[in-house]
Amino acid sequence: MNVKKSNQFEQLGIYCHIPFCVKKCAYCDFSSFECQDEKMVARYFKALYQEIINFAGQNKDTALVPVDTIYFGGGTPSSVEPVYIETTLALLKEAFFVTDKVEITIEINPGTLTLEKARRYKNAGVNRVSVGLQAWQDFLLKILGRVHNQAEFIDSMEILKTVGFDNFSVDVMYGLPGQKLEDVMETVQELMAFSPTHLSCYSLILEDGTPMANWVDAGQLDLPSEDDERKMHWAIDRFLKEQGYDHYEISSYCQPGYESRHNLKYWEMVPYLGFGLGAHGYFKGKRYGNANNLLDYCKLIESGKSASESEPEMLPAELMSDWMFLGLRKLGGIRDDLFKKRFGLSFFDQYETAINSLINEGLLEWDGSVLKLTAMGQDFGNRVFAAFV
Ligand code: SF4
To answer: What atom in ligand 1 is closest to the CA of residue 34?
Structure first.
């Protein structure tokens, strides 16, 4: 089978993980730590810089591949001194061919952003900010264990405006314990005053072992019913569309032309590199993941080893499966001509039974060239995605 494994020599995205947070949120199971020990932070960044240098030295063929997205995620990248972000960016620009049109995003959390930090990000080339609000109401922020309150979010918005960051995304969560439909609507309505170019709206996922999962298990907190959670999703959806936002991915809305270019790479299987603790990458037809223990990560790099464990080269069937279920996250759907171009056959040749039964169930629709989720398919997205795994 003639499979084009990836368009790795056309463009590349880079993700850098900054694992430090002021305090761990009650629902969080990401690779992040309450760590404001400056020595540990300095040691981590030294390892991160070294990882970037090592990669570039060992993959000289990437030096000419245009890097058009860079993403600082976490954790809370805005919780560390801005010099770390500046140095990482300078290093990336030295080691890779970062294009003039690069989208550089940093995640920030209210309460950790200062005017000086925002100015320095801007001067370093950051041109997109992703703000972790989650909910407008202070009582919900408290339940979530967020370090910030509404007033601090508004302060952060003012800082971004003062510095001239007009391309920014805001994270919103729904399906939270104690949250009512009116709270969710108040959150998105209040946000309109700031004109975010992008909103990421996530339904809470209770992760085993988190304090929030334990409180729910112990009956100390009640989640909204599944019906109410779906009502919240559709109320947000209706409202944001009325406000002119496109719903372009299950959890993502944007003003026209403001899709997250970096995240699109994940859903379209465009190669990206991941640097830092627990970071993942997809490069030269292989997926890889870095060590996710902070000390292990630092020690591996310090002893001249790689922090990542590369998986074997993906088989054609695995590539096709990822292409289907990641691509179907996009509300615009997936095109059979692009599938044919990449894999040399139609997705019906590979998945006829699964596709037809999902169409018959009303979860997918096919218009002769594009396959996409229906409204019901959004409600049962996991069932759709599982059919291609
Ligand atoms: S700020 Fe984000 S990464 Fe940090 S603990 Fe909270 S949810 Fe997790």
So the answer is: 5
Neighbouring residues of 155: CB distance < 8 A, sequence distance ≥ 6: 110, 113
Rounded to 10 deg, the angle between the 38-58 and 82-95 helix axes is: 10
**Which domains, and CATH codes, for the chain?**
12-267 (3.20.20.70), 315-389 (1.10.10.920)
Q: Which of 283, 347, 341 is nearest to 314 (CA)?
A: 283
Taking the CA of residue 27 as reference, the ligand 1 atom at the shortest distance is 7
Q: What is the pLDDT of residues 27-70, one digit of tens each?
A: 999 888 897 799 999 999 999 999 999 999 999 999 889 999 99
Decide if 16 contacts 88 (C-beta within 8 A): yes
DSSP string, 321-383: HHHHHHHTTBTT-EEHHHHHHHHSS-HHHHHHHHHHHHHHTTSEEE-SSEEEE-HHHHHTHHH
pTM listed for this prediction: 0.95
pLDDT tens digit sequence for 102-130: 999 999 999 999 999 999 999 999 999 99
Mean pLDDT of 272-301: 94
24 lines ligand 1 (CB under 6 A): yes
Q: Residue 232 CA to chain centroid, in angstroms? A: 21
pLDDT per position as a tens digit, 174-213: 999 999 999 999 999 999 999 999 999 999 999 999 999 9
Q: 23: closest CA among 142, 129, 138?
A: 142
Residue 6's pLDDT is what?
A: 45
Query: Ligand 1: which residue has its CA nearest to atom 8?
Result: 28
d(CA 46, CA 212): 34
